[in-house]
Amino acid sequence: MKKAIIGIIIAIVLVIVVGIGILVVKDFQQEETLRKEMLEFENLTRAENIDFDKIDQKIREIKTTGDYGVLEKAMKDYLADVVNASVSIANVLNDERIVNALTAKNYLEDGPDFIETKQFLEESKGKIEEYKTKVLALLTNEGAMSYIENKNLDQSYIDLYKEIALSEDTALEEDTAELEKSLDEAMKILEIETQVINFLSENKDGWEVQGENIVFNSQTLQNQYNQYISQL
Predict the structure, then answer these.
(1) Rounded CA separation 189/194 (Å)
(2) Partners of 207 in the β-ladder
(3) ∠192-198-203 over CA atoms, to 5°?
């Protein structure tokens, strides 16, 4: 009887040990899956020709389950907002109207009052400022951590989120600084274009378009115009 009881106890212990082993292996596999997902996402964003359809698909797919699934969704919600803000910035800056604002064609079509050009430039500056504020806030530790708040996850999952989502990489800090600098330069260009358009509308009787060139009726106006253009 004593041996039988010992045998039962050993059997129960073995079942428990095996069960724990399975859970550990499963957790390890889920963590590896999660890390692989994030690595694949990073590779997609660093490709020479970024495929936003693949990025969107990667963000929408949740490969893990349970608490790991909650963790993965939080990470991908965060990444989705970063990508969307970045794409919004790119869409504003890629608008051909920015390049064409100070061309003879636009001077003819929208001058001399430039109502549409003025509105477009003001809206573009507002959008860039809005998206710049949003994306820079997202790229902070506080911004990243806000996506894991109130998820009722154990500290181990939060620590894993911090490890993957937060970076102390100097390259990331440099990239963020470069992004801010580039957006500031874009804002500067838009501001100078706004000054040029305001200058032309305020002096509507002092210039005309001849072929592909703008011609002023005084050297003073020509010099002022050239001074603005030289800042671009």
Answers:
(1) 9
(2) 216
(3) 130
Query: Strand, helix or coil at 98?
Result: helix
Q: Given the structure tokens 């440099």, which residue do they identify?
A: 174
Residue 13 above 70 pLDDT? no
Q: Which two tokens stand for residue 73?
A: 């969704």
pTM over 0.85: no
Give rounded-to-5 percent helix, strand, coil for the chain.
80, 5, 20
Contact 45, 31 (CB under 8 A): no
pLDDT tens readout for residues 92-113: 999 999 999 999 999 999 999 9
Beta-bridge partner residues of 210: 213
Structure tokens at 101: 């604002």
For 79, other C-beta atoms within 10 Å of its C-beta total 21
Q: Is-contact 191 101, C-beta < 8 A?
A: no
Q: In 3-state terms, what secondary structure has residue 57? A: helix
- How crowded is residue 221: how many other Cβ atoms within 10 Å of its Cβ? 17
The answer to whether residues 118 and 194 touch, using CB atoms and an 8 Å cutoff, is yes
